[in-house]
Amino acid sequence: MIVDAVEPIRKMRGGAQAWLVRAGDGCYYVLKLLQNAQHSRILINEWLCSHFLLHLQLCAAQPVLLNCTREWMESAADLGLHVQRGTEQVPLQPGLHFGSRVPVDPNRESIYDFLPDAAMDGLENRSHYHGMLAFDQWVSNADTRQSVYFRGRPREFLRDAVYAPTAVSFLAMMIDHGYAFQGPDWRLDDLPRQGLYPRPSAYVAIRSWDDLEPWLSRIQGFSESAIDEALKQIPSTWYAAGEERELERLLEQLLRRRQRVPDLLHACRLARPELFPNWRSTVAVWTSA
Ligand SMILES: Nc1ncnc2c1ncn2[C@@H]1O[C@H](COP(=O)(O)OP(=O)(O)OP(=O)(O)O)[C@@H](O)[C@H]1O
Ligand SMILES: [Mg+2]
């Protein structure tokens, strides 16, 4: 989906030097520019993972292509939008950039970056961290697992359960997948200490392999067509020469890696036992295909 950037609001924290913007559909998005300070591949990683997560029915920010015209870029630059790489200020290019939809109107509702451990118990979808654990191992995420927290309607954000239309809950929404595939390296390494939420509060309810479901099975059966669907929507301007073929090869490896996810999780649990205090069974019930 393509939407027009309308109003630049403010710079966000973080290495990509993202900006909060209002867009033509009335929603707010966190904009990451193709010329961001990390790498252009960050946008492709964000795009693919956001689509994959929504396909898995995990609560993740909706990705869009944000159309930034030359005039918009100029007026945004006047308000301070810029990309700084060391001492160099990178020239802004108009075109399609990455947008991550903000779940609620940030002028009216609170959105939190961090949550005290005790408040994690009150999340409607804390179990989505179990799915994210499997996902981040699958895509070899080099970053810690990040999310934002807000009060919203579960009916709108949690797709695999039935909720009353007016019910409101405290929700976690997954963001920032720029360092999936080891970020700009586009590699799938087995690094069991990476890609984790840093506190046991996200995983305390994992007692057995059953608590990884339905996401583990969904990842193992992840369809090639869902990958192709996300891939074909990537704007050609996001690729450097030769990168399309390189990405195809990476995604072929990703498909093969689906069956290894239980083994990756087993390694992860052994590497960071303090994060999984209640995951008791010592026998790995899964084996690689
Ligand atoms: N969809 C979203 N809804 C609400 N806030 C968001 C969303 N996406 C990003 N943010 C906010 O913008 C900040 C920066 O986003 P993000 O973490 O994706 O960027 P980054 O520059 O890659 O960060 P890092 O330095 O962690 O790699 C987040 O900390 C969060 O506060
Ligand atoms: Mg981040």
Explained architecture:
The chain has 289 residues and is α+β, with helices and mostly antiparallel strands. It has one domain (2-275). It is 29% helix and 19% strand. The chain has 9 helices and 10 strands. It has helices at residues 41-55, 70-78, 117-120, 128-138, 154-157, 215-220, 224-232, 243-257, 261-271; strands at 2-11, 19-23, 28-32, 63-68, 83-85, 88-90, 95-101, 111-112, 146-152, 169-175. It has a 5-stranded mixed barrel. Helix 4 (128-138) crosses helix 9 (261-271). The protein is globular, with a radius of gyration of 19 Å. The mean pLDDT is 95. Bound molecules: adenosine-5'-triphosphate and magnesium ion. Adenosine-5'-triphosphate binds at residues 12-16, 18, 30, 61, 100-103, 111, 113, 146, 148, 175-176, 178. Residues 12-16, 18, 30, 61, 100-103, 111, 113, 146, 148, 175-176, 178 line the site of adenosine-5'-triphosphate (ATP).
| Share of residues in helices | 25-40%
Work out the radius of gyration: 19 Å
The total of helices stands at 9
Strand content bin: 15-25%
Bound molecules: adenosine-5'-triphosphate, magnesium ion
